[in-house]
User: Fold this.
Amino acid sequence: MIAIVCAAGLMAVWILYPAVIGVVAGVRPRSSAAAPAEWPDVSIVVATREPESAIRDRVRNLLETAYPLAHIEIIIGHDRSSPAPSIEVPAGVRLRTVPGDEPGGKATSLNAALRAAGTDVVVFADTYQRYGPDTIPHLVEALLQPGVGAVTGAYRLAPGTGKLVSLYWSFERWLRRTEARVHSSVGATGAVYAIRRALWNPLPAGLILDDVFTPMNIVLAGQRVAVADGALALETRTPTPRQEYGRKVRTLTGVIQLCAWLPAVVVPIRNPIWVQFMFHKVLRLLTPWFMLGIAVWAAWSLGGRLDSLALAVCAGLAVLTGLWLSVSGGRVGSRLRRIIVEALLIQVAVLVAGFNGLRGHWRVWDA
Assistant:
């Protein structure tokens, strides 16, 4: 019975829900955004604690946009623990640097930057991604549609990223795009999204997922979170499995923190995308437990049907396979080894995030 429940849980989260949301999206009429007659002023906010050279490169990339520069201001919200960067920009370009609030961290840097913003449209950017020339225009076009309070773009990984991580992000991009056609994307990609400034709420210090907290607040306020496929953010860094593990621990811990700090998201009568939020964010946290339940059932069933010799043979084959994967220097062995390591680290990250949430441990930036 436990195995059936666990298998049903995995199927519901990873297969049934995406299939149903895909069918519903397929019968919804597609909407298209068009360039406005007059472009609104836009504040581009970069909250960072990175070196000045990295910030300078990011600003240079932002200025390569096709959006009219006369309608852009760039605000660098730097962590108060780091010195204010000195960035030179062409004449006529508006750029300001503001220190984050106490006690520091990304959330407080964003709060300070938003107070300094003087426009009705805010675009959020991170330091190490690169926008295409049409990224900001696509974000603004989608944001100006009726009922849309936030819009996110498409995050593309750097070449050389692990196969499993790349596959996951391809699925994630499709799912967010599909959810947005039904109602709203569940959260945004922090490296590329925009909001109407009137819908901004200050972030609590220590918040992990500002790019889910803010969009979900906007959904709770009755607005939609759209997706602009043409708004690309290209990653410049190729993460190691350990770095991807740390990122996963942070984001999954952030989901639990969000439920604790913004409890309306788990209340069906308050959250208009409650089903999407639960399946996309919350129930995924049970994945390793579902898998463990199935594995225990399989081992128990196998142990009851095989004699000791057969079990010893199976164990020996498993050990030999593990040894081959650990010493094989060929391309196939290397790829298999990396995929297995990625898969294990992802599930461990889910477990660690769950324990972080149970303890109320939110300081995970160095995980």
Remarks:
- The CA atoms of residues 66 and 297 lie 57 Å apart.
- The first helix runs from residue 2 to 27.
- The longest strand covers residues 224-235.
- The beta strands are 42-48, 72-78, 94-99, 121-125, 129-131, 148-156, 192-196, 224-235.
